[in-house]
What does this fold into?
Amino acid sequence: MVISSVHATLFARTSFFCQSNGLRSFRLCLPFSSSAASVSSDNLSRKKWRQPVLSVLDLGGVKISREDVMRDDPTNNVPDNIFSKLGMQLHRRDQHPLGILKNAIYEYFDTNYSNNFNKFDDLCPIVSVKQNFDDVLVPKDHVSRSYNDTYYIDPQTVLRCHTSAHQAELLRSGYTHFLVTGDVYRRDSIDSTHYPVFHQMEGFRVFAPEEWEASGMDATLYSATDLKKCLEGLARHLFGAVEMRWVDTYFPFTNPSFELEIYFKEKWLEVLGCGVTEQEILKSNGKTNNVAWAFGLGLERLAMVLFDIPDIRLFWSNDERFTSQFSKGQLGVKFKPFSKYPPCYKDMSFWINESFTENNLCEVVRGIAGDLVEEVQLIDNFTNKKGITSHCYRIAYRSMERSLTDEEINDLQWKVREQVQSKLNVVLR
Ligand code: FA5
Ligand code: MG
It folds into this structure.
């Protein structure tokens, strides 16, 4: 029997209690430091995409050192492989699928809204818990706040887990139409459509009373209708004539809330979440007599479909056989796989304890195997008569770029087994 792991949408449900304590305040970020104009990355050559080995990174104009982000302390859960992604800014490379997609979305908004939307793509990804959660009304006991789901630098500071973290400050600064693109970070499961760092684009539009009053509709309906029209138009701009559907959902920051799904390759694919902004967010940020809509879309998910990219790890590849296939302004060129190296599967069974979580397991595996791990899947799960539960996970190792040797894989698996025991305190079977 194969039990596939469930990928919960971070903001779609409320569950579990998690503590939030206040130890030490840590404020690295200037509220925001990018200009409203998008920055061209023409001068970045294709081959020089590796993060420079610098002791200090410049994140949206904020100077950050490794010690600012990673500390050996239980209130910090940022691993090396995540630190190494900071400052990469794939979405600002005009020849990268994510940059090409971002620019195509910009084009849609510029054309349809006469350049009214202000664009931000260089806001610092290190934000306060207040920005990431409180300002957008995420309940104190929401699962997304837990150390199991979010990367914490300290109890008050996180790597943003969504671009909604910037809504409040931009509103307060007086912006009424804006797009925010950025890298976001989530502890998550491992498979071809989930990666702990991915990219989102947030859209936000505020309406003044004259706008809905003239329509005869009530403010919320007016806003929801406009939102759907805008996003259906965007989907057609990107995909051409596609079948799409709206699904009602829940987000703490919008009401009503929707997800847009697109029918592609015989499946419904969730591409974005959106809704009519909660009045409380507008009121707290100086918009007392307005209504607004917001959306957050996953750039990798859209790009995988548009460019036929089969695995989310490929976005991070420096292999020229990947990077050379995309050019500035070329939306929807289909990716031709340059190789199909076989995966190698290794199974591992252990008795879990109360604190075991799949995200923690995935962090251990990712920490050792990096991008050589393709999938971690629960394939068996049972509880014995004493009430102790056993899990069997199947780990798929595969490089996108070369064949792996048996020796290399055995070595990785050996290290995984060792660390799963020592770090997660489970008993291997
Ligand atoms: C959010 O992050 C909300 N902030 C979106 C939003 C904004 C709603 C404004 C309302 C108003 P969600 O967790 O569903 O929602 O993520 C949004 C999108 O990000 C998803 O639709 C999906 O396309 C993408 N996504 C989510 N998790 C991952 C992941 N691990 N890897 C790649 N893409 C992901
Ligand atoms: Mg979702």
User: Anything to note?
Assistant: The longest strand covers residues 197-207.
